[in-house]
Amino acid sequence: MTMKQCKEHEFDASAYVEPFYKTFDRVAGNANFHGLKPLPQMMTIGDIANEFLELMFPGRCGRDRAEMSLQQIISNQLTEVCSLLKNQIFLAYRYDNPSLDECGANDLADSTVQKLCVLLPQIRLDLKKDARAAFDGDPAAKNIREVILSYPCIKTLTTHRIAHELFKMDVPLIPRMFNEYAHKETGIDIHPGAQIGNSFFIDHGTGVVIGETTVIGNNVKLYQGVTLGALSFPKDACGALVRGAKRHPTIEDNVTIYSNATILGDITIGKNAVVGSNVWIKESVPANTMVSIQEPEITVRPLRKKTT
Question: pTM score > 0.85 for this model?
């Protein structure tokens, strides 16, 4: 007995094109990509973020470069990562301003990468302080190498410190893409606009959210689940959101914020303050104080025996 052969049919899209086409709003500035130049790609941005990790901490990616001197490694790595970054920045400039010609976008991208390169030594020094803060602040850490190789805060802060400088240069798209890549990889969500001082440590890190206009001083330590967010969003006379206004907390030097604390609005947590777990703060906290919630009452009772 032979099986019946099914007749193959080519899919005809013609009946479905028109309804789908009508969903596109051709107003300038909306998220339509038809007719625009190629866009930066998240996969490539992720590769660049990892290459910056290798630049800041040579050997972190496990590449065998035994035949090369440290200066050669740095030279090759810097050339590689900056070439990749320049191409993505070029695409971002051309997307952001379609009237910009290829030469103009290339000059802007080249200038941006050169400005970033001038800042890289200071960024690396800040990251070394971050790694030291993580080691000093976590008794479970065996050594700083372990911190650099495995702690999510180092990956996030390396990416953020690069993205923040690009954000200050008004580079379109790329800073947010960097930090969303780090968010996906680590569970730590830091807007590229957030200003972060040195010796910053995020212990565990999962679920941490740091908003755009947050300012963090030196020697600050956060635990998992901390939110530094906005209490409200200011609007103009027409009801549109006012973008860029200060709406997130300022965390001064030497502050410790324990797990799942929520701190909202343009308020200040003063120097040396300690914020306990699970608190909800909407007003400024003075320096040299501790904020905590009253311990819940715990009841312990024996279980009833099950009857058979």
Answer: yes
